[in-house]
Specification:
The protein has helices spanning about 1-30, 125, 130-140, 170-185, 195-205, 225-240, 255-260, 270-280, 280-285, and strands spanning about 45-55, 60-70, 85, 95-105, 110-120, 150-155, 160-165, 210-220, 245-250, 265-270, 290-300, 310-320, 325-335. By secondary structure, it is an alpha/beta fold. It has 2 domains: about 45-105 and about 290-335, Immunoglobulin-like (Sandwich), CATH 2.60.40; about 110-285, 3-Layer(aba) Sandwich (Rossmann fold). Helix 3 (about 130-140) packs parallel to helix 8 (about 270-280) and helix 5 packs parallel to helix 6 (about 225-240).
Length: about 325
């Protein structure tokens, strides 16, 4: 009788162990992060960087951002521990994270967007393989049938800007034809970006068929004049048109501030593979369905006090939850 009881206990224990192992494997499988093998690289959209409070001993600041995993997904699994700011590059300042949260909308709302692409002469060297058109096609593929889109470019002969349709389109096939037409055009001229933004934002305000509107600009440099820059911001704020500025290779403080001021986003693309993840997720960031992260930090000066006026550049390191332990860096600037 005791032998039978011992066998029963042994079998029950084995079954329990097997069930636990299966549940563990099932849970691991369900929580596995899907990363598309599409040649893209993770990228970051910065929605805002601002100082909340400041005195000579401590600066409290906040950063809002979105992470693009690949050409089809934004990242939604980051945790507080995945974000850090170290003091290796700035040993006199100690950074401490005070708050971390995230949010996203579940319901999609239709939007109207103008995609303003740089076709100036510098693109012949900065984008020799024409990755911007591959990326634009990915945006088109992920676009959705409820949204309206229009393609414009700037540069070309005479430093002009132009549209490739008579109005907004919902048909992705038609938009693909417009992309091909632009791709066949030789890149030339300078970059009258701000003048093009000023004109297209006014067009958006007048003709966009939806409540949600957005102007997406892609460039490797800026030109166009102070008046056009200020006019674009004024039109954007008055008519609730956020500016999403994608900057290739060269960093632009002007484009970053313009995006922050108009409640849009600044996206720094350091390599062309990041373009694929950026353009693939533009729709999600425009309609708010991409996960937005908010984190607050304090910076304390370990070697004295902060001056009344100052500025420093640093970076926030984001550990992505993938098997290869990918890290990406969000560069930020604080000025007071």
């Amino acid at each position: 009788m005791k032998k039978k009881k011992s066998k029963y206990i042994l079998y029950a224990t084995l079954v329990l162990i097997i069930v636990i192992i299966l549940l563990f494997l099932f849970n691991k499988c369900c929580n596995k992060v899907i990363v598309e093998n599409d040649g893209s690289k993770p990228s970051i959209a910065v929605l805002d960087t601002k100082i909340i409070s400041q005195d000579n001993e401590e600066i409290r600041f906040a950063i809002r951002f979105v992470v693009f995993r690949d050409s089809k997904h934004s990242e939604d699994r980051l945790k507080r521990k995945d974000v850090r700011i170290d003091s290796l590059k700035r040993p006199s300042v100690f950074f401490e994270q005070k708050q971390f949260n995230k949010k996203s909308k579940k319901t999609k709302e239709p939007f109207s967007a103008i995609l303003l692409l740089d076709q100036s002469g510098s693109m012949t060297s900065n984008d020799r393989d024409k990755k911007r058109f591959v990326a634009t096609n990915i945006f088109n593929e992920n676009f959705g049938q409820d949204n309206y889109l229009m393609l414009w470019s700037f540069g070309l002969r005479g430093n002009a800007f132009q549209s490739y349709s008579d109005g907004f389109v919902k048909d992705t096939f038609l938009f693909k034809k417009q992309i091909k037409e632009l791709e066949a055009t030789k890149a030339s001229g300078s970059s009258p970006l701000f003048k093009a933004q000023d004109s297209t934002s006014k067009y958006l305000n007048k003709y966009a068929p939806t409540k949600i509107k957005a102007l997406v600009s892609f460039t490797d440099g800026v030109a166009g004049g102070k008046a056009a820059y200020e006019n674009t911001i004024a039109t954007s704020l008055e008519n609730e048109i956020p500016l999403y500025n994608i900057c290739l290779l060269s960093k632009s403080k002007l484009l970053k501030q313009q995006a922050f001021d108009t409640h849009g986003a600044y996206i720094q693309v350091d390599n062309l593979k990041q373009l694929l993840s950026v353009f693939g997720n533009l729709g999600g960031i425009i309609n708010g369905t991409s996960t937005t992260y908010y984190t607050e930090w304090t910076a304390k000066n370990l070697k004295g006090k902060f001056a009344k006026k100052g500025r420093f550049n640093h970076e926030m390191i984001i550990q992505l939850p993938y098997r290869d332990k990918t890290e990406i860096k969000l560069t930020f600037e604080l000025e007071w």
